[in-house]
Amino acid sequence: MVRRAEPLTPSYVPRFKSRLHDERVAAWLGIWLGVAFTSAFVTGLISHFMQQPPGWLMWPSRPVNLYRVTQGLHVIGGLATIPLLLAKMWTVYPRLFQWPPVRSVGHAVERALIFVLVGAALFQVVTGLLNISYWYAFPFFFTSAHYWTAYILVGALVIHVVNKWPKVHRTVMKHPEDGLNRRGFLLGVAAASGTVAVTMVGEAFSPLAKVALLAPRRPGVGPQGVPVNRSAYAAGVSLAAANDPAWRLQVTGRVQRELSFSLEELQALPSHSARLPIACVEGWSAGATWQGIRLRDLLHMAGVAEDARVRLISMEVRGIFRTSWVSSRHWHDPLTLLALSVNGETLDLDHGFPCRLIAPNRPGVHQTKWVRQVIVV
Ligand code: HEM
Ligand SMILES: Nc1nc2c(c(=O)[nH]1)N[C@H]1C(S)=C(S)[C@@H](COP(=O)(O)O)O[C@H]1N2
Ligand SMILES: [Mo]
């Protein structure tokens, strides 16, 4: 093949001799990152649409662990992507000094999009990492910024993949043999990524909880063996208020008869148990055995339409988690409980005493604690 002569490069443009800055390493890292970002996008959208379902969409309540798996994959997979992203940036950074910087309008656009791609990728992992570390250092609302940047990232990624596909095809698909130091570098990056994954995955997969050194929450660690996300103190719910003899659980709204129960009356109702996880949007999850009243039993006692939606209200006065919606699919599920106890003990105040929702395949933010009112709509 005849190559055009490279244009003369000015002397201030540095030269990079390492073979690790080559196309082949960049292509392999690119493939891995493409898979990782696609998985983050899909699982991220699942999380978004579980929390804000459009009118036509009703999530199934089974399998019970679905959200636990998708959100665990999102957060733990996302963190394992960081070493890949850093390695990729290091491999290709000599291109910043490429001469001439642009060859055509098309090339200029292509390069500009790479800056968008890198910026969006860094933004996603940095905001995600800060969010799960409870370090709200950014002045914007995490969820919206992270959500919209996902589309920018994926848009730029698709264009980038289309542009680079011939190169990937040439360097990766057609050359099965490889140099040792390239392979060693890629193995090292994969090992770094694997280490992050292994030291995180125990936050969702309890057999590995002991090695979850990087995880902010761990199954088994917390009152009654279940981690607590926001304590009663932080939510402004006092033991005195929860223990108040005047406390009632109310079932109101579009019902045939309004109901009101004291704690003793609730305890006297038929009780059921369910083995279900709390699966936090932050990626950690923990299974527990819950005991309490089926929400559907309460709603049938009150007399409601089969397709009614239900809104739960917490004793918590402020805070975005003080209410949540329960779809008809979810309240019909026999595993959906207003739990009074967990792992054989009366709920700890931090787990929502006197009464909290626990339902299958539902983000933790919607497992409302300290429920005091069930409103049928
Ligand atoms: C270190 C990497 C990452 C971490 C730790 C992380 C963390 C999180 C967390 C904690 C949430 C839940 C937000 C909430 O509902 O309150 C979330 C949602 C989401 N993430 Fe990520 N993320 C990471 C990377 C990514 C990447 C690379 C993408 C895009 C390809 C992405 C796209 C999304 C989307 C679309 C949502 C849904 C936002 C919503 O509910 O509106 N994330 N992420
Ligand atoms: N009223 C109320 N309910 C709440 C919360 C809250 O802050 N207030 N936190 C939610 C979140 S984010 C999670 S992950 C689960 C955690 O439940 P746990 O603290 O019992 O593990 O409760 C949910 N229910
Ligand atoms: Mo959560």
Automatic annotation (TrEMBL):
GO terms for molecular function: oxidoreductase activity. GO terms for biological process: respiratory electron transport chain. Residues 244-376 form the Oxidoreductase molybdopterin-binding domain. Signal peptide: none annotated. Keywords: Membrane, Transmembrane, Transmembrane helix. Pfam families: Oxidored_molyb. It comes from Actinomadura livida. This is DMSO/TMAO reductase YedYZ molybdopterin-dependent catalytic subunit. It comes from the Bacteria. PANTHER family: BLL0505 PROTEIN (PTHR43032:SF2), PROTEIN-METHIONINE-SULFOXIDE REDUCTASE (PTHR43032). One of its GO terms (cellular component) is membrane. The chain crosses the membrane at residues 25-49, 69-91, 112-138, 144-163, 184-202.
